[in-house]
């Protein structure tokens, strides 16, 4: 931030005011995006780690950032940071529950982290009554499916081998299951993290530009969220992600963002 203030000859407090403006814009634009209905969404979930304040073991760091990205449009639904625990996952999966109510077909794909499916099942389930004896079975909501990649090799282990990909919880019997194994991956999310480390100094390796507070890191992520989704043209789709998703008809400029009135 100090370097930016020197290069552009502005005060640091001015940059902070701009970041706070983008922080408020994130809330408004996120709610606006959620008002739309979607036929089909494929969401990739992954995590990235950075240091916050001091160098502590990864499991104790509040610098974990969870990403939920729509595969086709590269629209980022969530980019939230904190300690990698159940509370952070519940905040992120709450967004998936809202999306499940806005689409007829929602798919969540993760690269080995089972807590996505477990947390999603805890807040986004329904009871299937089939007329048979016994307690009705709990499944994910109709149209919602989750797939996780089983990490680790079982070549040296005896007994029944685990499938390479599996659903962590039972899915509704009427859910469309047209999902091939070659499509189950989080490659686009990992490519985004490579870009994030180049573009955002808070995630660069071997430098002292790491954030000192989790709130400051989250504010930076909200700025990145707004610019990525509504301003910058993605190099793969050749469109602004919000335009590719159908949320807006054309991308916004920085000037137009600052002209948005916030109540």
Largest β-sheet summary: 6 strands, mixed
Question: Outline, from the CA principal axes?
Answer: globular
CATH architecture: 2-Layer Sandwich
Question: How much of the sequence is in beta strands?
Answer: 15-25%
Overall mean pLDDT stands at: 84
Cross-sheet strand order for the largest sheet: 3-2-1-4-7-8
Number of helices: 8
The CATH superfamily label reads Ribonuclease H-like superfamily/Ribonuclease H
Helical residues, percent: 25-40%
Describe this structure in words.
- With 263 residues, this protein is α/β, with parallel strands linked by helices.
- 36% of the residues lie in helices and 17% in strands.
- The chain has helices at residues 2-8, 12-34, 86-100, 115-123, 187-199, 214-230, 241-245, 254-259, and strands at residues 41-49, 64-70, 76-82, 106-110, 125-128, 137-140, 144-149, 165-166.
- A 6-stranded mixed beta sheet has the order 3-2-1-4-7-8, sandwiched between helices. It has a two-stranded antiparallel sheet with strand order 5-6.
- Helix 2 crosses helix 6 (214-230).
Summarize this structure briefly.
With 263 residues, the protein is an alpha/beta fold. 36% of the residues lie in helices and 17% in strands.
Defining key terms:
Nucleotidyltransferase, domain 5; 263 residues; two-stranded antiparallel ribbon; globular; 36% helix; six-stranded mixed sheet; single chain; 8 helices; alpha/beta
């Amino acid at each position: 931030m100090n370097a930016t203030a020197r290069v552009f000859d502005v005060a640091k407090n001015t940059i902070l005011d701009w970041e706070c403006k983008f922080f408020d814009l994130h809330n408004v634009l996120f709610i606006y995006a959620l008002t739309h209905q979607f036929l089909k969404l494929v969401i990739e979930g992954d995590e990235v780690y950075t240091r916050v304040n001091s160098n502590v073991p990864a499991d104790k760091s509040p610098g974990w950032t969870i990403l939920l990205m729509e595969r086709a449009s590269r629209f980022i639904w969530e980019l939230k940071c904190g300690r990698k625990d159940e509370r952070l996952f519940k905040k992120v999966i709450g967004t998936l529950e809202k999306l499940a109510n806005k689409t007829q077909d929602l798919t969540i794909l993760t690269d080995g982290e089972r807590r996505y499916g477990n947390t999603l099942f805890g807040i986004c389930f329904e009871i299937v009554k089939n007329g048979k004896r016994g307690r009705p079975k709990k499944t994910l909501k109709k149209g919602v499916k989750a797939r996780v990649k089983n990490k680790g090799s079982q070549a040296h282990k005896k007994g029944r081998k685990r499938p390479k990909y599996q659903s962590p919880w039972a899915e509704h019997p009427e859910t469309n299951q047209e999902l091939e194994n070659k499509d189950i991956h989080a490659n686009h999310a990992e490519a985004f993290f490579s870009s994030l480390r180049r573009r955002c100094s808070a995630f660069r390796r071997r430098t002292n530009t790491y954030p000192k507070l989790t709130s400051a890191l989250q504010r930076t992520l909200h700025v990145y969220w707004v610019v990525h989704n509504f301003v910058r043209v993605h190099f793969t789709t050749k469109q602004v992600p919000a335009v590719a998703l159908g949320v807006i008809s054309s991308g916004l400029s920085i000037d137009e963002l600052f002209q948005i009135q916030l109540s």
